[in-house]
Amino acid sequence: MPLTSDIAQTWRTPRRVIRRILDQGRREDRAIAFVLIACFLIFIAQWPRLSRVAAGFDLPPGEEVPELSRLMAYEFMSWVMIWPLLFYMIAAVSHLIAKVFGGKGDWYGARIALFWSLLATVPVLLLHGLTAGFLGPGPQTNLVGAIWVIAFGVIWGQSLREAESKT
Question: Are the C-beta atoms of 167 and 161 separated by less than 8 Å?
């Protein structure tokens, strides 16, 4: 199934989609592709907010306006080089916690569950980036952020549950 169709279906039936992905076999290239695509799209989602900051909005009085290129370089370094490594560690910790509670999965399943959940919820993060860029900080931006947190938590929880239940 195409990636976009799987993302849309994940919002309805996350366990079915993650099971289908896991049934395709252990492929580390798929895992790293999921996390790198998700992180790159999250980096793109930051552009409107960074443009707003570089234009001088939402800065405390007297603070110097940063250069957009510098902000973009820092965000790129963070999202494309550092966060993927942190997500690998988060997946490992989630697998260990699942093992304590009787999980029967493996390290790969925990990685795929986290990376796929992140990728599947990226569209909401893109909306969050637009909201932060056009409206700035406020209740609307917080609402979109809360929607992402809840959606990510539910999808990741269901995906991890499926990945840790070897059937």
Answer: no
List, in order, residues 6 or more apart from 30 with CB less than 8 Å away. 21, 24, 112
Cα angle: 130, vertex 6, 32; to 5 degrees: 80
163: tokens are 């990945």
- Residue 8 backbone dihedrals phi, psi, to 5 degrees: -65, -40
Q: Per residue in 2-41, pLDDT tens?
A: 788 888 989 999 999 999 999 898 889 999 999 999 999 9
**What pLDDT does 151 receive?**
96
The tokens for 8 are 């849309």
What is the distance between the alpha carbons of residues 78 and 74, in angstroms, rounded to a whole number? 6
* Residues 6+ away with beta carbon under 8 Å from 56: 65
Query: What is the phi/psi pair of residue 166, to 5°?
Result: -60, 115
* Residue 91 near residue 111, CB atoms below 8 Å: yes
Residue 66: its H or E element: none
- What are 81-118's pLDDT values in tens digits? 999 999 999 999 999 999 999 889 899 999 999 999 99
